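Page 42, continued from yesterday. The earlier attempt failed because a stray header line got pasted into the input along with the sequence. Redoing it now with the clean sequence only.
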Amino acid sequence: LGAGLLAVVANRTLRPLRDVASLADRISSGESGRLAPTRADTELGRMAVAFDRMVDALEAAVARARSAESATRLFLANASHELRTPIASVHATAETLVRADRADPDRELLELRLVRETARLGRLSDDLLSLARLEGQGQPEMAIVEDVVDRQRHFTPELHVEVKCDSSLTVLGNSTDLGRAIGNVLENAARATDGRGHVVITGVAQDRKTTITVTDDGPGVPDGARDRIFE
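This time it went through. Structure tokens are written below.
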């Protein structure tokens, strides 16, 4: 009688463990399920709750992985479509240039088209590189403003550029896009002053907000164009 009672108690005690093993087998074969214990105040109950949480986390991770895979496939398809046109144009234009006579009046237009399509390919390549950087772990890149100023000084050596930025001026973002944005404004300032004016770049960080201001001594924007200047 004691042995039989012990067997019954052991069977009931070990049933949750068999349920865990059975559910684990079903999940590994692609099914879904939860233990959903009626009591969570026992050791086995707490284990069952933890097991269900783990399954929830695994299913969420699988869903994110599938969504990312779908987005990657869509992007690759779109990127392939976008790259196909300029590549075909460059190929056709290059073949025409090889066969064309050097005295052909249309040769200059073909060369211009080749340059434009090559620049388009370069922009698409930059977009792909930016995406790869976003997917990976970004590395801190400092001195974005200094790099932009050095590059502008190379193109307009007579332009006087003064930088007044806080020493702790640091933001979290894409350094390539930030440098491009600041560089565009600095280039406009250089063009407005004919490359020989005075430009001041000011950077201030306050209340979790960073402001970059580019000021030049050029003629300024006409009043009629100020509302549309950033269109």
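Notes: Residues 43-99 form the longest helix (57 residues).
Reminder to self: strip header lines before submitting.
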